[in-house]
Amino acid sequence: MEIKCRAEDFVVDEEFTMPALDGGQFSYFVLGKRGMNTSDAVRLVARLFWVNSGSIGYAGLKDRVSVSSQLISVKGLGKGFRQDFARGGVSLRFLGTGSSPVTLGCLKGNLFSVVARRVSREEASAFVQKVHAFSDKNYRMPNFFGEQRFGNSNHLVGKAIISGDLKAAARMVFGSVNGDCAAALRSLPRKMALLYVHAYQSFLFNRCLSALASDTGEFSLPLVGFGTELESLEGRRGIVADILEEECVRPRSFVVRSLPELSCEGGERAAFVRVRDFRHRMADDEMNPGFLKCELSFWLPKGSYATVLVRFLFGELSEVCKPV
User: Fold this and answer.
1) With contact defined as beta carbons under 8 Å apart, do 63 and 22 qualify?
2) Contacts 24+ apart (CB under 8 A), 279-283
3) pLDDT over 70, % of the chain
4) Which of 16, 32, 146, 262 could form a disulfide with 307 if both were Cys (CB 3.0 to 4.6 A apart)?
5) How far is CA 242 from CA 86, 204, 213, 288, in A?
6) pLDDT in tens, 64-78
7) d(CA 149, CA 161)
C-alpha cells in the first residue's frame, strides 16, 4: 500500500471558525495550494503582497504532497489587494477584514479525501476486516503523531537539546559547527528550533501510547515537559515513568538552561479520537495495473493525522509508533 503518490491523492480542507468581520486591520483569505507546504505558500504570499511573512497568520500546517485549502490572515494589507487572487501555484479567496489574526484556535478540524494505491487483494481483505472492527469501536483511532512530525531526525535533535548535548544537536542541524553551538542553534527562527523539542515530546507520546494501545478508553497522555506531574497520571504513571527512564530524561530536562527560549512546560493530548463521516471504496488502480486503490474520506479533529488513520486501517502503525 502506498499513499501520497501524487498531490491529488491527498486533499485536505480546513473546517475553521471565522473571526468576526468588523473591518479591522486583518484581511482574511482562503488559501488554496497544490504541491506546496504551508510555510512555502506563506512566503510566496508574502512576496506577492509585499509584506513580511510574520504578518501572515494561519491555523495549521499542510503537507507539500497535497491539494489543500486553509484560512489565513494578512495584517495591514492595502485595499487594492483585498480581492481574489491566483499566482504561482496558490489561489486566494478574499473573505473580509477583522480585528483578530488567524491562530490555531480558529481551527476545528480537517476534512480529508485520500487515495491509497498499490493495494494488494490480501491487503484489501485485511482492510475490510479492520474497518468492521473500527466501526464496532465507534470509529475511534489511536491519536499517534504522524511520521511527518519527525522528519529524518527532528526528535533526535530535540533530545540532544534537552539533554544539553548542543554539539550533537548543532551537528545534526548544520552538519558541522565551529565555535559556539548554542549561538548557532539560537540563529534558527524560534519556531523552527522549538519544532525539534516538540518532535521529541511527540516521540515520547507515541512510545507511551504504543504501550497502552489496547486500552481504548477515554484518557489523555502527557506531552512531557517541565510542568508534567507523574503523580497525577494514576494507573498510567508506571508506563510513562519507565519510558522516561529508558530515555534517560525527566520532566525537568525540558528546562533548557543553555537555551531557555526552548524550554517546554508540556501539556496533554487525547490518546484516542473519534473519526467522523468515514467512507471508503475499493476500485481498480488505474496507475498500477493488477492492484486496487482505496478511496477514503473522513473528518479528523485538529492535530490528528490522516496518515495515521490510513496506516492504522492497513495495519502499518509500526512505522509511526517508534520512528528511527
Assistant:
1) no
2) 280/131, 282/119, 282/124
3) 98
4) 146
5) 52, 11, 16, 45
6) 899 999 999 999 888
7) 17
Q: Mean pLDDT score of the chain, rounded to an integer? A: 91
Cell representation of residue 5:
503518490
Alpha-helical runs (H) found in the chain: 38-49, 121-136, 154-162, 166-174, 181-186, 190-211, 237-247, 306-313, 318-321
38 touches 70 (CB < 8 A): yes
CATH of domain 109-143+272-321: 3.30.70
Q: Which residue has the cell 484560512?
A: 71
pLDDT at 323: 56
| 41-45, 189-193, 207-211, 244-248: least confidently modelled range | 189-193
Q: pLDDT grade, residue 179 (50/70/90)?
A: confident
Residue 317 has pLDDT above 80, yes or no: no
Distances (CA, A) of 62 to 149, 181, 272, 302, 308: 12, 31, 22, 12, 15
For cell 538552561, the residue is: 257
pLDDT band at 192 (very low <50, low <70, confident <90, very high): confident
Contact 124, 2 (CB under 8 A): no
Q: What is d(CA 269, CA 202) in angstroms, rounded to the nearest whole number?
A: 10
Q: Rg of the Cα trace of the chain?
A: 21
Fold designation for 20-101: Alpha-Beta Plaits (3.30.70)
Domain-by-domain residue ranges, the chain? 20-101, 109-143+272-321, 147-270
Beta strand 90-98 with 26-34 is antiparallel
Give yes or no for a contact between 42 and 69, defined as CB atoms under 8 angstroms apart: no
Instruction: Say if 20-101 and 109-143+272-321 have the same CATH topology.
Output: yes
pLDDT of residue 318: 65
Locate 18 and state its grid cell: 471565522
